Amino acid sequence: MAPFVWGVIMLRNYLLPAWRNLTKNRLYSIINIGGLAIGMAVSFMLLLYVYNEFAFDKFNKNGGRLYRVLRNQPANGDLKTGTSTPIPLAPALTRDLPEVDQVARTYWPYDELMTYRDKAIKLNLLAVDPSFLNMFSFEFTAGNARQALVDPSSIVLTQSGAKALFGDLTPVGRIITLSNKYQLKVSAVIKDNPANSSFTFKALISWDQLTVQQSWLKQSGGWDNYSFFTYVMLKPGVSLPSVNAKLKNMLARYDPANKENTLFLYPFARFHLYSDFKNGINTGGSIDFVRLFLFLAIGILIIACINFMSLSTARSERRAKEVGVRKAIGARRFTLIKQFMGESLLMVFLALGFAILLVVLLMPWFNDLMSLQLSLPYDSKWAWVAVLAVTVFTGLVAGSYPALFLSSFNPVKVLKGKLDATKRTVRPRQVFVIVQFTFAVCLILSSVFIYRQINYIKDRPVGYERSGLVELPVEGNMGKDFESYRQDAVSAGAITDGTLTSMSITNNGSNSWGITWQGQLPGEDKLPIDQLVGTYHIVSTYGMKLVKGRDFSPDYPSDSTAILLNQAAVALMRFKQPLGQIVNYHGQNCKVVGVVENFVWGSPYEPVKPAIIGFGDWKDNIALRLNPGKSISSSLAILQNLYKKYNPQYPFEYSFTDEKFNLKFRNEHLLGIMSAGFTCLAIIISCLGLFGLASFSAEQRRKEIAIRKVLGASTGSLWADLSQEFIWLVMISFVLGSCICWFYVHGWLYKYTYHTTLSLWVFALTMLVSVTICLLTVSVQAIRAALSSPIGSLRAE
């Protein structure tokens, strides 16, 4: 019991002085704790994001044995790595590779109408092989994985999907209607997928049910149709390199016409962060984004700690006599270090409380910005252990320099009032400010160049008119009744034109090969060429620019075998006079009736690829050109009423093409917002550190300032003298930050084919802003010191 009581007494002796010191200097305590709390809060949120990304898809029990099949395909002299595979691959893997435990195919997830009694909603649906439920970890609340999809007329719902469709009713055994056609029985219910899962479906149907709904899969689902995904679970202890060696040329064995395509297995859980490939070799992916955020989290925490050190030692003059007295009565330096470290830890734990409160308040905004569902892991003991460990480490780091600095005072000098600033004591503080402002300069420059790059790409011509264009999915009756719908909408003045296409013009998710033309060179028939299939009025609806020829038109019955080419395709095929040329496309001899300007269909950062616009009935997307003479709201209201007339069972869901196009810049735009936010935060924290150093300098030079005032120095000259050293520190920071930023931003920009330039005026403007911020921050203390009365500073002790 005695050691415990003694420990409590000792703790009280350390905490009470610490608390008295905090309350005595309230302003500095609030600034110090507040700055550290903000830095910790931002760091914690970023670390939550980083942890979420690293934990992506890691929850599967068989995670170490799960792989997805990837394909390398020659394209314009390079290897293009993709995820799409043919339907027959799955049974071939099971048959030919004894190392394979289970295989599952999936189709693209899509939203589908589901009806129960008088309630109809759209849920995200995924068609899978029954083995899918055994390979991946799903927690069943009703039913089981073994029987859930054995019956092709079965459907599996997630809890949220079942709740949305049935409310509080028991889902299992109930019949729902899919797409107003197919009767399916709910066989099982599973818990919702974790937020950090690659699968976002709300319902599952079997692969056999998909072939019933889409009969074309039986005729066109051969080895040459790469429209599906294949997942593999290997047996325990199997060597991945040996399996990949057998898998590599499997396509060539079954489909000699596509022997250039090769396959390999890639770890399923790794694909989220490492999904970028160049010539078949992984070059990274979103891991670059995650690493950047990890760097920002560490960097912000470091500058917050530096700010803490600067502000703590800025009041050293106020603590000097306390240290002198305690040393004079026998206190050892180690005892003083423990006291000051204790004060630092107390302040850090107070900052932790405010940091957690800030995280709770800011998390909804952060989730909206990042399109995530992050939450504080209140029930995770390891999370709290990590938080406490980071907090203690932060306290030790932040308190180390103040503790060593304050405990080093000579008792004789401080009791005589002769505490002087030496080069040794000032230099670390100057280094702190340089580190802080270097970080801030890097962020300022990065933010500017990120936004310049986004605007540069957005201002590039895209080859079609994005504004005033809306797109709808083809559902229900809209496939067969579209022409009537289009004519009624034109007559009502809601649109000027409309067309059916195979997909949105913002997504180039389809290509074809085996295309031949006159004068073709050997091997060019193996080149993949992007394809968009549409119907009449496609050029006029999208506002494409015709270079030669015409649009598809009902006035020409032969257009059922006509095609349009973009300029890149004309260049590939080396047509001097493209109109009237015959191109064998999908086994038909098609005549070129028009050439359109290159339009941005895929990544706006890459050169436009050759593309064919074919005529056909791949009806998955509706494009409508709104009437510019009417308000958007009135046009949409007319379109909605007409939609209910022709397709009453389905909701009227539309999207603006320009908004979908802007999603292509989401990562860069997000990076710009985060960089701008962190720039402001870094500037604020850096200014606090600069404020602390200015306070320290003013206190250390108070007698010098007093003497100079007595000798006639003006307030302006004193202000200039006090500000000069800080301007030099900021200039040094600018040079360092500019060099670091130039190196990294130069590399980032030149990853893009089209990019802005590293303009010198941006660096000059940043230098001006940095110096201005420095002067505004320092002037508070500099002017205060210059205006102070010299009497108190010159009074003899």
Q: Which descriptor suits the 3D outline?
A: elongated
Largest sheet, strands/sense/barrel: 8 strands, mixed
- Could you tell me the radius of gyration in angstroms? 34 Å
**Helical residues, percent:** 40-55%
Helix/strand structural class: alpha+beta
Beta-strand share of residues: 15-25%
Number of E-type strands: 26
Nearest-integer average pLDDT: 83
Low-pLDDT windows of residues: 421-426
Q: How large is the count of helical segments?
A: 25
**What's the N-to-C terminus distance?**
48 Å
Polypeptide structure, described:
The protein is α+β, with helices and mostly antiparallel strands. Helices cover 50% and strands 18% of the residues. It is built from 25 helices and 26 strands. The strands form five sheets. Strands 17, 18, 19, 20, 21, 22, 23 and 24 form an eight-stranded mixed β-sheet that branches. A six-stranded mixed β-barrel has the order 4-5-10-7-9-8. The longest helix is centred in the middle third of the chain and has 38 residues, at 333-370. The two termini are 48 Å apart. Mean pLDDT is 83; it is low at 421-426.
